[in-house]
Amino acid sequence: MKILTHWKVLILVLMVLASAAAVGLKSGPKAGVEVAFVSESSPAKNLINQGMIITEVNGNPVNTINDWFSATANLKGDATIIANGDEFQIKVNDTLGLDVLDVQNLNLDFGLDLRGGTRVILKPKTNISADVVENIKQTLQTRANLYGLKEIKFKTISDLEKNNYIQVEASGIGSDIVTNLLATTGKFEAKVSKPAYFPNNNSAVFQLGQKQHTVEQSGDTLQIEGKQLKPGDNFELDSIKFQYLNRTADTALFLANVYEGKDIELIYSDPQRSGIQQAGQNVWRFYFGVLVSAQGAEKFAKVTSGIPSIPDASGEAYLQDSEIFIYLDDKLVTSLRIGSELGGKAYTDPQISGSRETRKEAIEEKLYLQTILRSGSIQTGLDIVSIDIISPTLGSGFVRSSAYVGLLAGFAVFLVIIARYRKPKFALPMFFVTLSEIIIVLGVAAINDSRIWIGILVVNLLIILAALLKKQEMDIFSVLGALTIPLLGAGLSWTIDLPAIAGIIAAIGTGIDHQIIILDETLTGHARRIYGLKDKIKTAFFIIFGAAGTMVAAMLPLIFLVAEFVKGFAITTIIGVWIGISVTRPAYARIIESLSKEKGLVSN
């Protein structure tokens, strides 16, 4: 066991233990079912939310999804549900409207293909071509990426009657995301109210830029440029769309469309033009600026020209009876008064703002609005046709098959090593190191594990300092690995899905190749007149670093240039290769070196 005292091997053992803890030590309940989706019609809406853990229904314990189905099969009337330790009284009519998944017992973020999730079918509200549906799908994908939704897949499908649909699959999305983010049209409009004053009660001047139009009145009916208008009527003047709202004794009020979605050129997110502020108790204000086109700014200048300004109670001057109204899907989002200095000016950076009761809600609303505006509108609204839970059977079968194939391949390698070198003792460390690489990769990918990895970082530093004091041999890659891998574990996590598992398999294959190179160079390097053990190890690592560098170079473009679903494969492979060349391979080389000396097979 003397080999365990060498700093490289000790760091490997500690990292394996830390990774096992990072994966296995999950806080929170380990029994129950997790709410994956709450439908709009659910009687539990606004009571039970997505992500809650349900552990009991009407006194019946719920430990698995099968328990859930048994407890809710014939659920009617009053129901008592325990979720996150709290009791909820719910009146069940036709359906409970909750979709659930088994609780995840590990600290890993499993993907849709391994854990299951939600499938939503969306249907366009109007008859549109397959090409338009494809464009809508791309817009929804953009929204999902901008909003930060992970593990979400979009696919266009059609039925036997040639009706086009969009299928959305995700590991966990709420009804609010589907309804407000994905199914919404995203039509943006900014309108400005413009008054017309009747000083002599007969006619008024309606100014647009340098042009002046006469408005005649007859009761509630107005006439402008030959158009007869009643309250609510729409008309167009100088290529600007207006609506006649209402009139009082001496004022008629109009609403002009000045900005549309096509006018948005940039959404600001820098701290100077975007942020969250607490405006009072239980009031959080959000705001962000928008850069609009010159054409939209010119419309604003025309509409706001000729409007008189008045001071308010604070002494600030604003345009009289004029405001800018921001609409999204015909719903008012923001209304702001217009400063007098903007009258008749091309206004290119209007601000969108609002308020919510909590900071979290304000951040979510701000992100939602920015996402919709950045992604643009879709040609038609979408109706939710169906919502289903996806079974993880296929992914689970793949994992089991991968494990069986891995064990079989490992056994085959074990037999080959024994046949080639006639020494079973050299094959056992290879099995341990390969298993170690898998555990460490999963540990780095784990979530909520920063305290474990920071602790290991401190311990690794102490081990390296102790090794320096003992004057043990140092190498830069092992030191960097001992420091960077805990930092990656503390700050990095990614979804374990089928591509990520493929990356683990690729890293394992590379690792076994490298270990065989180390073993072969150590035991047979004398055939090429390499007699010193250290020279043999150096020769092996020269080959290993070349192969590892090639692998990393091949994976890097996949992170930046290819579709989202292969990023997990690239990240897992790169992390696995780095763990190999900086931690597991040096430790394996030290183990083989020690065993070789014990057997008297090589000299120093």
Short précis:
The protein is α+β, with helices and mostly antiparallel strands and 604 residues long. It contains 14 helices and 25 strands.
Descriptive labels:
Multidrug efflux transporter AcrB transmembrane fold; 14 helices; 6-stranded antiparallel β-sheet; Pdz3 Domain; elongated; single chain; Alpha-Beta Plaits
Distance between the termini: 20 Å
Mean pLDDT: 80
The residue fraction in helices comes out at 40-55%
Alpha-beta content class: alpha+beta
CATH topology of the largest domain: Multidrug efflux transporter AcrB transmembrane fold
Largest sheet: 7 strands, antiparallel
Morphology: elongated
Radius of gyration, CA atoms, in whole angstroms: 33 Å
The CATH class of the largest domain turns out to be: Mainly Alpha
CATH superfamily of the largest domain: Multidrug efflux transporter AcrB transmembrane domain
Number of helices: 14
Indicate the CATH architecture of the largest domain. Up-down Bundle
In terms of DSSP E residues, the strand content is: 25-35%
The total of beta strands comes to: 25
Low-confidence stretches: 526-533
What is the number of independent domains? Answer: 4
Q: Could you walk me through the main structural features you see in this protein, from its secondary elements to its overall organization?
A:
This protein has 604 residues and is an alpha+beta fold. Helix content is 43%, strand content 28%. The protein folds into four domains: 2-26 and 393-599, Multidrug efflux transporter AcrB transmembrane fold (Up-down Bundle), CATH 1.20.1640; 33-103, Roll (Pdz3 Domain), CATH 2.30.42; 117-185 and 379-390, 2-Layer Sandwich (Alpha-Beta Plaits); 188-375, no CATH class. It has 14 helices and 25 strands. The strands form five sheets. Strands 10, 15, 16, 17, 21, 22 and 23 form a seven-stranded antiparallel β-sheet that branches. Strands 1, 2, 3, 4, 5 and 6 form a six-stranded antiparallel β-sheet that branches. Helix 1 (7-24) crosses helix 9, helix 4 (130-147) packs antiparallel against helix 7 and helix 8 (393-421) packs parallel to helix 12. 36% of the residues are buried. The model is unreliable at 526-533 (pLDDT under 50).
